[in-house]
Design goal:
The two termini are 72 Å apart. The chain has 127 residues and is mostly helical. The mean pLDDT is 79. The protein is built from six helices and no strands. The protein has helices at 2-17, 23-39, 43-52, 64-102, 108-111, 114-124.
Amino acid sequence: MDEERQAYRLKLALDHGLKDIAPASARRLEAARHLALSKQKSPEQQLLALDNHGGTGLTFGHGSGLRQVLAVGALLLGMWLSFYWHGERYVSEVTETDHALLTDELPPDALLDKELLEWLIDDSSDD
């Protein structure tokens, strides 16, 4: 509402200044305004012009939709590879720990780890 009030006050100030403009200047300004309005493009034409010149229009032209699909596909592939690699790394760490537990090749420091001892106690009570 404040913006509308400011716009109205600005309009009043500009209208007040119209009295001081010479009639010839007012006619030239009006002609320039009409010329500018006749050259103004519609919103659809503006979007199309932006898209044709590499802008970010809403329409897909010249393969930009394909580029976006490929970019999203590459992003998803990268995320999948990252999750796969982290999962494989986690499984290999767990496998090494399980192998060390089963073959009694644990280093002495591992037996001092309270979390490992709690895990062994909890795991053995399930049987």
